[in-house]
Amino acid sequence: MIGRERRDQLRRERELIAAAFSIAPVRLAVGVALTAITGLLPVAFVVAASALIAHAPAAIRAGSGSHAWRTEELYLAALLGFFFAQQLAAPLGEVVRTGIAGRVDGVMRERLMAAAALPDGIAAFEDEAAIDAVRDAVDRLRLRTWGPGAAAAAFLPLARRYVQAVAGAVLVSVAVAWWAGLAVLASGVVIRTGYRRCGARFFRAEAGYARARRRRSYTARLMFSGEAAKEIRVFGLLRWLLSRHEQLALAVVQPLWRLRRETFLTPFISYGVISFAVLAAAFAYSADDAARGVLTLGGLALVLQVGFTGVQVLGGYFANSDTQIYQGMLAFDAVRRSESLLAARAHTGEAALPAGVPREAIRFERVGFSYEQEGAAVFSGLDLTVPAGRSLGIVGVNGAGKTTLVKLLCRLYEPQAGCVTADGIDLRAVRAADWQRRVAVIFQDFVRYEATVAQNVAPRLNGHPADEAAIWRALDQVGARSFVEALPRGLDTVLSRQYEGGSELSGGQWQRLALARALLALDDGARVLVLDEPTANLDVRAEAEMFDRFLEATFGVTTILISHRFSTVRKASSIVVLDGGRAVESGAHAELVAADGLYARLFELQATRFRDAAGEAAP
Fold first, then answer.
1. Do residues 558 and 529 touch, judged by C-beta distance below 8 A?
2. Overall average pLDDT of the 167-185 stretch
3. Confidence band for 317, pLDDT divided at 50, 70 and 90
4. By CB count within 10 A, which of 55, 87, 528, 595 is most buried?
5. CA dist., res. 529 & res. 520, Å (int)
6. How far apart are CA 102 and CA 88, in angstroms?
């Protein structure tokens, strides 16, 4: 009876083969045909070789030109023909298998990327189980020789070996005796069964170390990271990183070393001894029959050749075929596990978002939220109104929830209590992608794409690049034209020194490009503009000048400004103060200063610091 683990392995293998047939049906059909042909060619070669050996004495006695000699020449020609056919079929089969592997792996990568887009927000990418699965899938798909495609392709040479072994055993049974063919086949099956059992146990255990491998890979990436290279050298962190990487690597491999010894050493010896005993018995009986004249010299040669190759084809191929299959199955499982975990995090409404929303206001209604299930609440009963078509400044001390508010607004997270509405529509009821197209955001940690200036400023716009005039217009609005024109290739300059002819920008210049990207998103249908600490790398005067331009360019657009500098938010139409998970004050700058509350105290504290530092009144 087949055990549960073996049944599970067979089920997973069938699913992979079915997926491969759906992805590359023609290539696999060709591969199956080649499998049958290349599986029978070695057996035909053995038959020709045995016949050549059996008839050699008679041909030599009859001499050159005799009928026996010409028959021997035909056997030799057949032998050479079968040999060269094998040599031609081998590279052709490799080409087909490479095509299958590449196509299957390509589709698996596409499936993984599609799965990454399933969640509406980013919570899934902060879940340890999901991260482990995705990282494991990505790492395994990088190893082209051990990906799902390699596993699917490896079934073909494995099947070819079975065809070869079975055909050879049948041939021995017909030519010699039924028990001889059965013994030859049994010797190969015994050792192959041992290999498969050992391999299945080992690779199942190896799959359990995805988290440890992810941590090890992180330290390796740090050592080759341009961003980390500065601190590694300045703070002398290389020795610590190397030690950490060694510890994490040993945590992965030491248990596998022990398991490998336990799994392979003793069982391999045991199964090998059994296989050798069965094969030796078949050889001994055949040799005895040959000595008594019961078995011809050709028959003995046939048994010897098929016997040795039978063990080799079913047992010795384990290192290549089964390793590829087991490792590829783990990659296939990792992709499917990632899809499952990420799909479980998908939470998207089905309703279409009406055109023009928001026309009236965006409201946070009794919103409660915390990052951890039992962690401290960031918001507890937050009520906040963002009037449409106006600018709103949001301030608060560090940890007050300013950036979290932006993430909730963008549906990167969902409220655990209350709701966020736009013109009275609960945003959870509409398709997340529809709403996210209405919002343009520049986060504190905005992405610096290793791409051209034009691609950094206009990465989307309905899937088409913006025209050059629109890009320059946005750059003018944020004061970026001068330094972009000074770059080696202007808008076509790649913003990374890791590319030939590339350039790097200062922090302030990067922020101006990010702001231009936000402005250009308005041309793509965005109706809400959110700037989360957008000018942290600019000095006070540059920031004030920037926002004068920015607010003028976005007049009539729903704009949310988040900044720790009051010189920025004071220019907004209204201001909200966050504290203790709630909006505790709201109003225009002058009103809040006159109210002498938290805003007024924070403003005065910052103004005093600027006066002390610059010797002049804060703006």
1. yes
2. 71
3. very low
4. 528
5. 11
6. 22
Of 533, 565, 550, 539, give the one whose Cα is nearest residue 446: 533
CA distances from residue 557 to 362, 406, 587 in whole angstroms, order as listed: 13, 17, 19
Q: Name the packing angle between helices 67-116 and 128-142 (round to 10°).
A: 150
Domain with CATH 1.20.1560.10 in the chain: 11-344
Q: What is the CA radius of gyration of the chain?
A: 36
Cis peptide before 465, with omega less than 30 degrees from 0?
Answer: no
Q: How confident is the model at residue 462 (pLDDT cuts 50, 70, 90)?
A: very low
Q: What CATH number should be reported for the domain whose range is 11-344?
A: 1.20.1560.10
Residues forming a β-bridge with 440: 529
> How many angstroms separate the CA atoms of 66 and 59, rounded?
8
Q: Tell me how far apart the alpha carbons of residues 152 and 132 are, in angstroms, rounded to a whole number.
A: 24
Instruction: Give tens-digit pLDDT for 464-484.
Output: 556 888 899 989 988 899 999
Integer distance in angstroms from the first to the last C-alpha of the chain? 83
Would you say 453 and 490 are in contact if contact means Cβ atoms under 8 Å apart? yes
Distance of CA 106 to the CA centre of its chain: 11
Distance CA 414, CA 290 (A): 82
CATH 3.40.50.300 domain position(s) in the chain: 356-438+528-619, 441-526
CB 17 within 8 A of CB 155: yes
Q: Which amino acid is at 389?
A: G
The single residue listed with the structure tokens 């508010």 is 405
Mean pLDDT within 117-136? 82
Of 111, 114, 135, which Cα lies nearest the Cα of 346? 114
Query: CA-to-CA distance for 142 and 328, rounded, in angstroms?
Result: 11
Band (pLDDT 50/70/90 cuts) for residue 618 is: very low
Nearest to 147 by CA among 103, 114, 115: 103
CA distances from 238 to 234, 242, 490, 572 (A): 10, 6, 38, 47
Three-class secondary structure assignment of 249-272: HHHHHHHHHHHHHHHHHHHHHHHH
State the average pLDDT over residues 249-272: 67
Q: How confident is the model at residue 310 (pLDDT cuts 50, 70, 90)?
A: low
CA quadruple 79, 85, 88, 93: dihedral, nearest 10: -130
Asked whether the beta carbons of 38 and 90 are under 8 A apart, the reply is yes
Q: Which residue has the tokens 């290539």?
A: 27
User: 404: buried, middle or exposed (CB in 10 Å: 19+, 13-18, 0-12)?
Assistant: buried
Tell me the C-alpha distance between 573 and 162, whole Å: 78
CB 412 within 8 A of CB 122: yes
In this structure, CATH architecture of domain 356-438+528-619: 3-Layer(aba) Sandwich (3.40)
Write out the DSSP string of 201-241.
HHHHHHGGGHHHHHHHHHHHHHHT-HHHHHHHHHTT-HHHH
Burial class for 500, CB neighbours closer than 10 Å (0-12, 13-18, 19+) = exposed
8 A C-beta contact, residue 295 and residue 179? no
Contact 72/52 with Cβ under 8 angstroms?
Answer: yes
DSSP-assigned letters across all residues of 29-52: HHHHHHHHHHHHHHHHHHHHHHHH
Please provide the CATH number assigned to the domain covering 441-526: 3.40.50.300
- Residue pointed to by tokens 């805003």: 599
